[in-house]
Structures are given as C-alpha cells and as structure tokens.
C-alpha cells in the first residue's frame, strides 16, 4: 500500500481528517531519513510554524512519527509502520548520519535479549558512533 494511503487510513480511522498541512508534513518526513523540527519547518515555507508543531504532536500521538536521538540531537522520523526499520551510525567527527538497513541477526539478538529479561519489546533504537570512512584518514 502506498505510504500516503496508509497515512490517510491511519488519520481517518482515528477520527482525524486529511488536511493539507498533514499531507505536506508527512511528505517532507518521507523524503528524509531523519530531520530536526527546525529543518522540517524550513522545508515547509507554505505551512504555518505552529501548524507544523501541532501536526508533529498529533503524528507522535498516533504513532506515525517517532523522536530519535542521533548524535546529540533529537530528530524526527517516520515510525517503522511508515518507513523501513533501520539503525544509525553517527560520525563524531563530521556529524554525518548513515542509515544502516535492517540486519536480521541484530533484530533476533535484541528480541532474545528482551525475552531474557521478560521485557515486552515494543520498539528499539540503535546507534553506533565512531568515524566514517572519510574521517578515518
Ligand atoms: Zn565523518
Ligand atoms: Zn533494529
């Protein structure tokens, strides 16, 4: 199912209408792996600032968006239902963020770790920090 169809279903099912602001915020999030709220506002000059904040708050409540800490910043990302599950690698020198796509070995290890601690796992975030290839010289 296309992601914007998923968004429409999610909003409508929970009693919210599909407004232009909601569509635009979703579109901007879709075109990025992760983004700060400040950059998101910058990408949406046609959308009122407070409306971006309200939309993000709603998206967080509905589980469409999650807040992830990458490096030293909080960023926004679409939740796993709306994008592909991934991890991050953060270069502490040039601050680049690399997306590490799903690795089933790690996913299994995390699930089993949660089970060992009788923890009911809902979500996880994983970030590795170090130097990217360009910064290793
Ligand atoms: Zn680097
Ligand atoms: Zn994972």
Task: Give me a quick take on this structure.
40% of the residues lie in helices and 20% in strands. It is of the alpha+beta class. It has a 3-stranded mixed sheet with strand order 4-3-5, with no helix packed on it.
Task: Describe the fold and architecture.
The chain has 137 residues and is α+β, with helices and mostly antiparallel strands. 40% of the residues lie in helices and 20% in strands. The protein has helices spanning 3-13, 20-30, 37-43, 49-61, 104-116; strands at residues 65-70, 73-78, 86-91, 97-101, 127-130. The strands form two sheets. A three-stranded mixed β-sheet has the order 4-3-5, with no helix packed on it. A two-stranded antiparallel sheet has the order 1-2. The longest helix is centred in the middle third of the chain and has 13 residues, at 49-61. The radius of gyration is 17 Å and the shape is globular. The model has no long low-confidence stretch (mean pLDDT 92). The site of one zinc ion has 6 residues, from helix 5.
Proportion of residues in helical segments = 40-55%
Ligand identities: zinc ion
Helix/strand order, N-terminal first: HHHHEEEEHE
Any idea what the shape is? Answer: globular
* Total E-strand runs: 5
How can the largest sheet be summarized?
3 strands, mixed
Strand content: 15-25%
Q: What strand order characterises the main sheet?
A: 4-3-5
Q: Any idea what the radius of gyration is?
A: 17 Å
Detail the poorly predicted runs: none
Average pLDDT confidence is: 92
- N-C termini distance: 44 Å
Structural class: alpha+beta
Number of helices: 5
């Amino acid at each position: 199912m296309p992601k914007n169809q998923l968004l429409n279903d999610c909003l409508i099912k929970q009693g919210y209408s599909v407004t232009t602001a909601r569509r635009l915020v979703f579109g901007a999030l879709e075109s990025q792996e992760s983004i700060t709220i400040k950059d998101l506002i910058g990408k949406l000059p046609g959308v009122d600032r407070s409306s971006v904040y309200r939309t993000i708050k709603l998206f967080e409540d509905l589980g469409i968006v999650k807040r992830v800490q990458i490096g030293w910043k909080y960023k926004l990302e679409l939740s796993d239902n709306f994008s592909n599950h991934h991890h991050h690698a953060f270069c502490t020198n040039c601050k680049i963020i690399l997306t590490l796509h799903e690795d089933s070995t790690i996913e299994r290890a995390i699930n089993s770790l949660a089970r060992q601690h009788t923890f009911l796992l809902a979500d996880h975030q994983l970030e590795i920090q170090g130097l990217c290839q360009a910064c290793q010289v």
